[in-house]
Design goal:
globular; protein-arginine deiminase activity; Peptidyl-Arg-deiminase_porph; single chain; hydrolase; 24% helix; 10 helices; agmatine deiminase activity; Agmatine deiminase
């Protein structure tokens, strides 16, 4: 039997694939690296951070940047490095999925395939990052032929998995795979017992086709927070209203409805070409002692932080300005991947 931990369960580290001039971040590299440095500073208060560098020269540049971080009394050993070439930096989607073998309490890292969200962007290097990083590791690395991005699934830690159907049952991601075959692979690799499929929900500017980590997240096995719209004139309002209706209809194992916590939407943010960017608050990251919340210099930031604080008592709430990140279509959770702690 296998256990797919919820994000609030003990973690060993958070993986980051660092941006570089060969990625789409080139034009705003300084601004986005500042976000990454802030994340490192926050994460290492609670646990290790694993930084994937494109080569040894890139590693030296990153080390020099991090050496200038203010002293936060975290041991240097909490910053670890690995070298692997990368197309981009969305670690949530090309990083490994951690599961725990219940028989041995050991961690298994599942290496699902990544094809750039159905071939939208080059991803050949990113698809090989997990195998390269863990090629010489002593722990178990298990490849899967299924294309699955980490942002497409959400675990309650109790055997239930939440996902938007089109982000997995997709001929551009998994041609030839039926829904039944995909569900069987998820049960086998992840040990999940039930899969809660959603049909609706999408933020404008999101290239993932509606990753669940932009829309709805478990806060505990009985509670879901979700992106909610209260403005009927907003172009995202119809899809988010349909999402809310689906979440209200979901049931826990015991037949009870979930407790739902609505997260507000910030005012629309657009790029220089007038395209709306996918800003939202569901894309937060949970670490061992903190919830890192993406914020956008918007009055709704404080409301989202307050509501998430009530969902995660005992954890610090740390807002992180993610306006540089959403310029490339993602936010805080998208660039991070937690590595669960083994139970050994």
């Amino acid at each position: 039997m296998r256990h797919l931990p919820a994000e609030w369960e003990p973690q060993q580290a958070v993986m980051l694939t660092w941006p570089h001039a060969g990625t789409d971040w080139a034009a705003q590299l300084e601004a986005v690296e500042a976000v990454y440095r802030r994340l490192v500073q926050l994460i290492i208060r609670d646990q290790a951070v694993l930084i994937v560098c494109r080569d040894e020269a890139h590693r030296r540049v990153i080390q020099a940047q991090l050496s200038e971080l203010p002293n936060n009394n975290s041991p240097a050993v909490r910053i670890q490095f690995a070298v692997a070439p990368s197309n981009d930096t969305w670690a949530r989607d090309h990083g490994p999925i951690s599961v725990i073998d219940r028989a041995t309490n050991a961690r298994i890292l599942i290496d699902f395939r990544f094809n750039g969200w159905g071939g939208k962007y080059p991803a050949e290097l990113d698809d090989r990052i997990t195998a390269r990083v863990y090629a010489a590791a002593s722990e178990r690395l298990e490849p899967s032929p299924l294309v699955l991005e980490g942002g497409a699934i959400e675990s309650d830690g109790a055997g239930s998995l939440l996902a938007v159907r089109r982000t997995l049952v997709d001929p551009k991601r998994n041609p030839g795979w039926s829904q039944a075959a995909i569900e069987a692979e998820l049960r086998d690799r992840l040990g999940v017992e039930r899969i809660l499929w959603l049909e609706h929900g999408q933020l404008s500017g999101d290239d993932t086709d509606g990753h669940i980590d932009t829309l709805a997240r478990f806060c505990d096995p009985q509670t879901l927070c979700y992106a909610a719209s209260t403005n009927p004139k907003d172009s995202d309002h119809p899809a988010l209203e349909q999402l809310a209706a689906e979440l209200h209809a979901l049931r826990q194992r015991n037949g009870a409805p979930y407790r739902l916590v609505a997260l507000p939407q910030p005012a629309p943010i657009h790029d220089e070409d007038g395209q709306r960017l996918p800003a939202g608050y569901a894309n937060f990251l949970i670490t061992n002692g903190t919830v890192l919340v993406p914020v956008y210099d918007d009055p709704a930031d404080a409301i989202a932080c307050e509501r998430l604080a009530a969902c995660f008592p005992g954890r610090r709430i740390e807002p992180v300005d993610c306006r540089p990140l959403i310029r490339q279509g993602g936010s805080l959770h998208c660039i991070t991947m937690q590595l669960a702690a083994s139970a050994q």
